[in-house]
């Protein structure tokens, strides 16, 4: 077994002789682990609540720990560009494969972009799914209880299409429209942007995908100070949260 296969085996567990068969399922409607839900208020925002099984989450966390990403409390962020770690490259490939095989439409090339104002029928439009690789930049963050991230739109140095995988602690990510958002981009003909923030509950192993309006016209934040992390009226119990963000760098001309 070569080094890359051994890393993948440690991360995703033993499945078969094929390194493409990673217990992630085929993304079909019959696979309950990959149920994709669009956020009706925000075009281009999709959630897969159980993208990774508890076993795969545990294996992935063990690999992150063994690789020494967060050896000290002061080390709470790590980035990689271009050549991703084997486990991150496999995660990117798995997201790509699941999206292509999911039964949103019969032919992935028929996927419509969420940019054109039509109904979302896939988490990523066809132009994103056709790029290789799907992602080439990794940012790994470790948040202690009470630590979050302020409202922001990801830098324009990254292309459209962002994936965020959550591990360990549940949290609520809030989305708010960018100031001065054009009325042409509002959902369902709203005359004004919503004044309240749109909450999205992220559980361990969940994956969110942002493209189009969700990526460019909505800020996202996680406020983990006491009183802000509530879901269905209950305060969420906070522990350490690990987030894995995958993006694609813009090509330099």
From TrEMBL:
Residue ranges with Acidic residues bias: 16-29
SUPFAM superfamilies in UniProt: Clavaminate synthase-like
Superkingdom of this protein's organism: Eukaryota
GO biological process, alphabetically ordered: DNA damage response; fatty acid metabolic process
A Pfam family assignment: 2OG-FeII_Oxy_2
Basic and acidic residues: compositionally biased ranges: 1-12
Domain Fe2OG dioxygenase: 134-250
InterPro entries referenced in this protein's UniProt entry, alphabetically: AlkB-like (IPR027450), AlkB-like_sf (IPR037151), ALKBH7-like (IPR032870), Oxoglu/Fe-dep_dioxygenase_dom (IPR005123)
Membrane spanning residue stretches: none
Disordered: annotated span: 1-35
One GO CC annotation: mitochondrial matrix
Family: Belongs to the alkB family.
Protein name per UniProt: Fe2OG dioxygenase domain-containing protein
Organism annotation: Rubus argutus (Southern blackberry)
Highest classification ranks of the organism: Eukaryota, Viridiplantae, Streptophyta, Embryophyta, Tracheophyta
